[in-house]
Specification:
This protein is about 35% helix and about 25% strand. By secondary structure, the chain is of the alpha/beta class. This is Glycosyltransferase family 2 protein. Pfam families: Glycos_transf_2.
Length: about 230
């Protein structure tokens, strides 16, 4: 099974090379890697291009991680796509294990893995908190599934984009399967988009919840009139 990798990146010069190297080091390597540089003001794009001829870099004005991810997926070549945040890392056998799960599943299945946290600047990748991951860096899916669910929405504040997309996928009948192994190393960087609690950034989760309620209301109204 061949696969592509989609990576959204914004001011990721400190981490993008390491992220791409973890993809290139897979026991089952990708056919292509698409990085969408979402209006970075640092050397993210140049560093990404320098990693391998396998990497295609697309630049755009800053629009949000969801839009950057969507654009990256649309420019991939394969029927199977894996997504990765530009500051996270993959274990070397991540794709091998997830592709085996996908091989045995139907095309309505989205495959995830467990992940372990580590602190930026540390080389300790073994003692961090572990948990199941339904995040961008864990996800492997058929490209047709993405096309069916649609583009990833960017909420205000930048948080909750994948929560919204995965909620829509579940509503459409897609099944989630988690590989029972640590496949992803999630980097902890103080000040990053996902770090800690922030009232302004967390507004995105409220928008995501509201969108879900409105979709549910629309479904109930449609059912009541059918």
């Amino acid at each position: 099974m061949t696969y592509s990798v989609a990576i959204p990146a914004y001011n990721a010069a400190k981490t993008i090379a390491e992220a791409i190297k973890s993809v290139l080091a897979q026991t089952v390597p990708p056919s292509d890697i698409v990085v969408v540089d979402d209006g970075s003001t640092d050397d993210t794009a140049a560093i990404a291009r320098a990693q391998s001829d396998t990497v295609k870099v697309i630049t755009q004005d800053n629009a949000g991680c969801g839009q950057a991810t969507s654009r990256a997926i649309k420019r991939t070549m394969c029927d199977i796509v894996a997504t990765l945040d530009a500051d996270d890392l993959w274990m070397a056998d991540k794709m091998e294990k997830q592709l085996e799960i996908l091989r045995q599943a139907n095309k309505q299945t989205l495959v995830f893995g467990s992940h372990r946290h580590f602190k930026h600047g540390s080389d300790d990748y073994t003692t961090g908190h572990e948990c199941d991951g339904k995040t961008r860096s864990d996800l492997v899916l058929y490209r047709a599934a993405f096309d069916h669910v649609g583009d990833i929405f960017d909420p205000p504040g930048g948080r909750g984009d994948m929560v919204d997309w995965l909620g829509r996928a579940r509503e459409l009948g897609y099944q989630f399967q988690v590989c029972n192994a640590v496949l992803v190393l999630r980097r902890i960087i103080p000040g990053s988009l996902s770090y800690g609690r922030d009232n302004a950034k967390d507004q995105g989760y409220l928008m995501v919840a509201h969108r879900a309620m409105m979709r549910r209301k629309a479904r109930e109204q449609a059912e009541s009139t059918s």
